[in-house]
From TrEMBL:
Alphabetized NCBIfam families for the sequence: dnstrm_HI1420
Pfam families: dnstrm_HI1420 (PF21716)
Name used for this protein in its record: Addiction module antitoxin
InterPro entries according to UniProt: Cro/C1-type_HTH (IPR001387), HI1420 (IPR014057), Lambda_DNA-bd_dom_sf (IPR010982)
Coiled coil spans: none
Signal peptide boundaries: none
Molecular function, one GO term: DNA binding
Length: 108
């Protein structure tokens, strides 16, 4: 029998390009349960993929504070999120939830 070594799955291993990171964050916005935990964790993953030390320099924040704020249990202020998003070279935008609905479809 062949021994198989497994390692925990980490999104960081798959975030190689700016497009990968943007698509990942968009997917996390769509799937977040409403408490922001998935979005914070995704920003943390993207930050680790880019380099947390450099992000700390770019935002003027402590690296340890960024790890805490961007964990799924973190509770960062919106200003922190905006600093991180800008430092990562990402942009947030809004889209109407009704934009992709069929004409006459009900809104829930």
């Amino acid at each position: 029998m062949t021994n198989v070594t497994l390692k925990p799955w980490d999104a960081v291993d798959h975030l190689h390009t700016d497009e990968d990171m943007a698509l990942y964050l968009d997917a996390c916005f769509a799937e977040d349960p409403g408490d922001g935990s998935l979005i914070r964790a995704a920003l943390g993953d993207i930050a680790r993929a880019r380099g947390m030390t450099q992000l700390a320099r770019d935002t003027g924040m402590a690296r340890e504070g960024l790890y805490r704020a961007l964990s799924s249990e973190g509770n960062p202020e919106f200003t922190t999120i905006m600093k991180v998003v800008r430092a990562l070279g990402l942009r947030l935008h809004a889209q109407s939830a009704n934009e992709n609905r069929e004409p006459g479809a009900s809104v829930q």
